[in-house]
Amino acid sequence: MHIFYGKAALIDFLKSIKTTHSTIGFVPTMGALHQGHLALMQKSLSENEHTVVSIFVNPTQFNNPEDLAKYPRTLEEDVKKLTALSPKIILYAPTVEDIYDGQPVSQPFDFDGLENQMEGKFRPGHFNGVGTIVKRLFEIVEPTNAYFGEKDFQQLQIVKKMVAKNNLKVNVVGCPIYRESNNLAMSSRNERLSDHERENAAIIFQTLNIAKEKFKSKSATSVCEWIQKSFKKNAMFTLEYFVIADEATLLPCLRKNKNKKYRAFIAIVVNNIRLIDTISLN
């Protein structure tokens, strides 16, 4: 497997293997790879001539220094997983210096308000960091297709908006959420949970399914109120937000419109670990 730690060498290599009709699939990650990541890569491998995977814990998208410090870094194990999946994968594992040239700061973006909802409210500057790193990675790799999981649905919409506004020639592909046996959405942060916390985190997807059922006959407001009340009785998990929003704008649903697609979003905190999930409601 080809592994690159610097962008100059990666760019030269990609130029050497590109042809007029070849396609490059790209899966950007922060490492601590799990089956959800590998599914994105498998899709890229099946749809493109070449597949590039990046592993980079991006400092500019963390508004909490403790979260950045504790984020799992398992490059050696990740390389083993990638090699087992396919030796054709091209890995880019840069340093902060290589990506940011000594200046790890975000550039400002206008995402037409998508950045002000949900994660944006609780993580100031997060999406400027996401936009900055994804744009830089796209400029380095120049992929034909880029693959993102729908667990981070708001991020997926943000990336699509950034690509459109910057006229980047990248097809952004959203892929289904991969779940553990108890339906907890797969996440690198799950590795920080105790066995007890991980087992009980099944409540997140259970809550989303109850919300989906209730939304068939009740208003978004009443569903949200019910969720908030139910979590007040839960000693283990703190509800950070539960929102029913328009998929396109991410604005909270005030009144149902049969022509719009709605999605429920949830973020909970357990032992200072944030877990998010989402489900389509119609």
Automatic annotation (TrEMBL):
Catalysed conversion reaction: (R)-pantoate + beta-alanine + ATP = (R)-pantothenate + AMP + diphosphate + H(+)
Residues involved in beta-alanine binding: 61
Subcellular location as annotated: Cytoplasm
Listed EC numbers: 6.3.2.1
Origin: domain of life: Bacteria
Pathway linked to the protein: Cofactor biosynthesis; (R)-pantothenate biosynthesis; (R)-pantothenate from (R)-pantoate and beta-alanine: step 1/1
Group of enzyme by EC: ligase
Active site annotation, chain numbering: 37 (proton donor)
Pfam families tied to this protein: Pantoate_ligase
NCBIfam families registered for this protein in UniProt: cyt_tran_rel, panC
Family note: Belongs to the pantothenate synthetase family.
Protein name: Pantothenate synthetase
Organism: Flavobacterium fructosi
Source lineage: Bacteria, Pseudomonadati, Bacteroidota, Flavobacteriia, Flavobacteriales
